Amino acid sequence: MYIQKVLSNGIKVVAERVPFVQSVSLGVWVANGSRYEKEEENGISHFIEHMLFKGTEKRTAEQIAVEMDSVGGQLNAFTTREYTCFYAKTLNDYAEKAMDILSDMVFCPELSKENMDLERRVVLEEIAMYEDSPEDVVYDLFAETVWRDTAMGRTILGTPEALSAVTPDSMRGYMKKHYTSKSIVLAAAGNFGDDFFDKLDEHFGQRGIGSDIPALTGAEYKAANAVRKRDFEQVQLVAGFEGIDVFDESVYALLVFNNVFGSGMSSRLFQNIREKYGLTYSIGAGHSAYIGTGTFDISAAVSPENTAVVAELIAKEIKRIKSEGLTEDEIERAKIQLRGNYLLANENVGARMQAIGRTALLGRPLRTQDEVIGLVMSVGRGDVMDVIDRILNTDTLSVIAAGPIDSVEGLFS
Q: Does the predicted model carry a pTM greater than 0.85?
């Protein structure tokens, strides 16, 4: 049973009481990520994530770390294209400590020039690290290619040029515009007391913040091919398709389909390409859903000399599943596996907090475990065939590669 509240300043709260644990996970979810940025601001959302750990008006960066470590707690954050999340997990005795630290970080960051110049170097090192990662390079190229000159097509980390222009004043101005009562959701899961919400209001609800809703830019998927030639040992290959958006209820059929097709060691892609032929170590498929757009991709890391044959084998699996679909036995096994994965994940209060926080922030319906499992178990063969026909649409196929390769023309045909 979920508890939903609204704090005195308009911030929404969603929580799930889990009485059989001794911990609480609390997250501050902000509807702000790289998709909300202008081109000249690219990377500022992720930069903010870093800077909020660098000290507040009453705590240094070291004090933030020491205070959380001293109670055995965990503190972290992440930034995506559509949201940023700052979160803490502590024993339930120290839940208010987590509230105090998180609210201090989000509402009272110091943002000194000295710390900003120092942390900018850290972010630039992070960008350099990602540039050495074939998987990160190919997925950034995929986004850049299919979403073109939109915010969705830009990297989450930003560019050195855009980051060099960020100042303490410009960051404060950005946060004032984007960190508002309409863009923030607090999510909690764990064993908390009856006074939990009063304490949340004390720490978060008394803050004077704006109430505007930041604008979200559009992002139309357009199929195209692209290559980024790099001096990697392998070719990182992606066959991407237009997927579903975050509000599409066919997600449950998609999960069943991909459980058989490309998710995990028992999937067709893994068994029929890696295990049977030994031509790749890494191969799989997955979907990414966003507001109004989404992608489905099949990826593999292959030696240059094996690129064409692996692409041919993947194309063969695509054609096979489009023509034959899944058997009833495969569908039932997939549903049982998905049910098990879901229940095991939800034994962790951090996973529960993240699930309800993201759901509430994006405006999707909050569903109980039984409701989610019911939707998975009700998926039929016709639902799966419909989603296969819709997702594996060759009209939306985009072939993307990074590494020692000159062209992707003719691959997957």
A: yes
Our measurement of the distance from residue 101's CA atom to the centroid of its chain's CA atoms, rounded to an integer in Å, reads: 24
Strands 398-403 and 226-229: parallel
Q: Other C-beta atoms within 10 Å of 55: how many?
A: 21
Compute CA 314 distance to the chain's CA centroid, rounded to the nearest angstrom: 26
Q: What is the CA radius of gyration of the chain?
A: 23
CB 358 within 8 A of CB 29: yes
Burial class (CB in 10 A: 0-12, 13-18, 19+), 52: buried
Q: Is 175 exposed, middle or buried (0-12, 13-18, 19+ CB in 10 A)?
A: buried
CA distance 118 to 123: 9
The bridge status of strand 184-190 relative to strand 23-30 is antiparallel
Query: Which residues are CB-neighbours of 184 under 8 A, at least 6 positions away?
Result: 11, 12, 28, 29, 30, 31, 209
Q: Which of 395-412 are b and which e, b meaning 16 or more Cβ less than 10 Å from the residue's Cβ? A: ebbbbbbbbebeebeebb
What is the crossing angle of helices 113-131 and 44-51, to 10°? 120
Q: What is the largest CA-CA distance in the chain?
A: 63
3-class DSSP state for residue 309? helix
CA torsion, points 378, 380, 383, 387, in degrees to nearest 10?
A: 100
Three-state SS for 133-161 is CHHHHHHHHHHHHHCCCCHHHCCCCCCHH
Model pLDDT for residues 372-406, shown as the tens digit of each residue:
999 999 999 999 999 999 999 999 999 999 999 99
**pLDDT one-digit tens code per residue, 123-170:** 999 999 999 999 999 999 999 999 999 999 999 999 999 999 999 999
Distance CA 277, CA 311 (A): 13
Contact call for residues 297 and 237 (beta carbons, < 8 A): no
Q: Is there a contact between 35 and 217 (Cβ–Cβ < 8 Å)?
A: yes
Give long-range contacts, CB 8 A cutoff, 24+ apart: 167-172. 167/113, 167/116, 168/111, 168/112, 168/113, 168/116, 170/44, 171/44, 171/47, 171/48, 171/51, 171/111, 171/116, 172/111
Active site residues: 49
